[in-house]
Amino acid sequence: KCNISGVARTSSTFLLTPYLRSRLAIMLRKRSMSLPDYLSLIVSRYGPRIRKGLLKPSRNPKRLYQKAGCGYKPKNFVPRSEVWIAFTQLARFLNWSNCYLFAVLLQMDSKKIPLLNNSNRFFSGTPVRDRGGTVRLWLYAERLFIRKQEWIRKLGRRTKKAARLLPESRSG
Questions:
Q1: Within the chain, how many helices (H) and strands (E) appear?
Q2: CA–CA gap between residue 16 and residue 83 (Å, rounded)
Q3: Do residues 140 and 111 lie in contact, with contact meaning Cβ atoms separated by under 8 Å?
Q4: Is residue 100 within 8 Å of residue 64, measured between CB atoms?
Q5: Could you tell me which of 103, 104, 108, 106 has the C-alpha nearest to residue 135?
Q6: 3-class SS of residue 15
Q7: Tens digits of per-residue pLDDT, 18-36?
Q8: Is 75 helix (H, G, I), strand (E, B) or coil?
Q9: Residue 97's CB: how many other CB atoms inside 10 A?
Q10: What is the DSSP letter of 131?
Q11: Residue 94's CB: how many other CB atoms inside 10 A?
């Protein structure tokens, strides 16, 4: 067989916890994508924002890796060369390992953490580290707001239906 592109496509591996493997499976099923397509999506979605300061680079001279001993299992795949190069450059820019960057981006994408843009005068565009559960509190408040809107819609439909069923008041 002849390789026309001249670049051998090699297999790559992400080390993921069982929780992140299940989140990845959900995201791939939800979007009807393969892992190489999903990697391309998150690189195109988060790459420019990372360069603008979405995530803070590690200050440590050594590369930042995932914590040891968390029951990581390998997820093998064959990425597109240009996407893998762009992803690796993002990881090197942050001084993070590829696995760590993918885990962070997968969590952000699966939890739909709102990305702050620089147009908002109250935020700098960089997320705050979750020291006291601020991100979880934000997500909880957002879920409550969505449920409130759904409740109001359901209540509105029920009251309209009940008004149609009640006999009209007749003045005599």
A1: 5, 2
A2: 20
A3: no
A4: yes
A5: 108
A6: strand
A7: 989 999 998 899 889 999 9
A8: strand
A9: 19
A10: S
A11: 20
Give the 3-state secondary structure of residue 76: strand
Sequence-distant (6+) residues with CB within 8 A of 111 are 139
- Residue 123 pairs in a beta bridge with none
Q: Which residues pair with 73 in a beta bridge?
A: 16
Per-residue pLDDT reduced to its tens digit, 117-165: 333 333 333 444 445 555 566 666 666 666 666 666 666 666 666 556 6
Q: Indicate the pTM of the whole model.
A: 0.61
Spell out where the chain has E strands.
Answer: 12-16, 73-77
Give burial (CB, 10 Å; 0-12/13-18/19+) of 105.
Answer: buried
Cβ–Cβ < 8 Å for 126, 51: no
The owner of tokens 């690796």 is 88
The dihedrals phi and psi of 41, each to the nearest 5 degrees, come to: -65, -50
Residues 137 and 114: their CA atoms lie apart, in Å, by 13
Long-range contacts of 107-112 (CB under 8 A, 24+ apart): 107/20, 107/23, 108/46, 109/27, 109/42, 109/45, 109/46, 110/23, 110/26, 110/27, 111/139
